[in-house]
């Protein structure tokens, strides 16, 4: 009878693509949030006890394990529920991102608890490293033998502890640090103002309180940069999380994060959804960056999820940028975020002086992409042994390959775009959307002509060739995702730049991601107009942010910097604000435009996209779905309309946009329709709340 009283029927949330919970029976006491292992079909899965009130049905399976070292708090569960409710991602899919490597939970963990006790002893080991790292590499028995040979007592071993020193702050930075509260705080600082140093001092206060800090970065390449910064002041274990980690590294870092052995974690957007032992603060670096928006799979914005998590966990969330996103700026104006401003560059550094070059007036040869004033500035900088950066937001050598004899253009067989020409590492035609590649033909595939093959639109490779023609002895480095394909390659290249092994850098947006080059004093923008004609409500905002960030790479130390912007729209208001470093004026003007046309952040926008290999079927179901939405005075329905790039990766796409006031719960309106809507399995429906991609 006593045994029967302990029986519990519980509801478990499992990491599968499902909206529902699953009932299990437990013969041992369990609590809300317990991490439990259960049998599901032929698999064994870890899940979270979501409710202690399961549904009693025949032949219930019982839970097999309760994890002794990790449990979801009620605050964390509330955060996951809001993520699902806001993004319309099924709760089970959200949990899959919390447990991205389920094997972590199966590991034997008792020996890992000894890491802090034995790390001191391992100073006597033949090679440096943390306890866990050397157990993974050399096995537990060998590590134990090292400890025994060190002849250290438990008291001596316990003397080991992580140490965190602090960077020296200016009075202005100290004032900013004091104004960071226990809520969402935005640190707005001009490029080179020392936001990082303020952040590092803030992190120390969290680590000293024995809590974990998550630092989100928009690009994987920035993870190692942040780790190197932290290692100057911190001696403990730093966790890393991003998609490029090997399986072994993901297990190692995932375990340290889950069990609290990593006090500081640096990660890409997916790290915001991980399970933590004792999360104490979240930092979002370069919060304006569009890379925080997930483009495929479950669609969410890493920055917004960080703000949600900070709110539910009741911990500080620190957003940082020199160029605030319009959404964050609007939240500051609505007093939803506190606002800290760093208006001076660190040390004696000054903001670069900006020269505007009107392409309608500057005399340059018909084949040159670099105007004479910029060319002379590059030569002068090279003579002074100072580094220069040329920015062009176009990968490869040229954007179009054309036969003037018959009009043939090389098009992608999978996407409705033209193929770009690449010469590095070898001559190819490449699609920048699906990755399709083929060798660059010697003759036109249509008319077999050899004489009238032309290239249009210069990329970074063409610019590099042009610079070499007038500065043949300059050491030129090109930075793009094609050339620096992996984080390791990129970090090696960045290290060489910082060590002044290159004179001139030529790069795409990859160079605008918060890098610090002490000897770089000149920036040249080859095409300042590249996004002004894009059919995207955020194109102007993105252009200002990218140009401001790129220009901010110049003159970050004692030598003053300067920038040259080549444009054919020199009177455009964006360039007027940019030249005078007047970001507040630009943001206010952009907000006025958005308000005038009833665009975000003043309204909520949701995109529903059907995709499939049969265009007519995709269009048909997009029309059917639109008709299912009832008339609602607070909801405006736009479309369906074909996507701008159609097809993409051989899939046709039709989109519906729904627009509503911010205070209207449009997710409930959509959910009510979709709960009773079915469509063929060969179609996909992508739901994107607050879309960033309009292609």
TrEMBL record:
Annotated positions binding Zn(2+) 1: 403, 406, 444, 447
Helicase ATP-binding domain residues: 176-342
InterPro entries in UniProt: DEAD/DEAH_box_helicase_dom, Helicase_ATP-bd, Helicase_C-like, P-loop_NTPase, PriA, PriA_3primeBD, PriA_3primeBD_sf, PriA_C
Enzyme class: isomerase
GO terms (BP aspect): DNA recombination; DNA replication initiation; DNA replication, synthesis of primer; double-strand break repair
Positions contributing to Zn(2+) 2 binding: 412, 415, 431, 434
Catalytic activity: Couples ATP hydrolysis with the unwinding of duplex DNA by translocating in the 3'-5' direction; ATP + H2O = ADP + phosphate + H(+)
Cofactor(s), names only, from the UniProt record: Zn(2+)
Highest taxon above the source species: Bacteria
SMART domains according to UniProt: DEXDc (SM00487), HELICc (SM00490)
Pfam family, one: Helicase_C
Enzyme Commission number, as recorded: 5.6.2.4
Protein keywords: ATP-binding, DNA replication, DNA-binding, Helicase, Hydrolase, Isomerase, Metal-binding, Nucleotide-binding, Primosome, Zinc
Details of cofactor binding: Binds 2 zinc ions per subunit.
Keyword Membrane set for record: no
Entry similarity comment: Belongs to the helicase family. PriA subfamily.
Function: Initiates the restart of stalled replication forks, which reloads the replicative helicase on sites other than the origin of replication. Recognizes and binds to abandoned replication forks and remodels them to uncover a helicase loading site. Promotes assembly of the primosome at these replication forks.
Record protein name field: Replication restart protein PriA
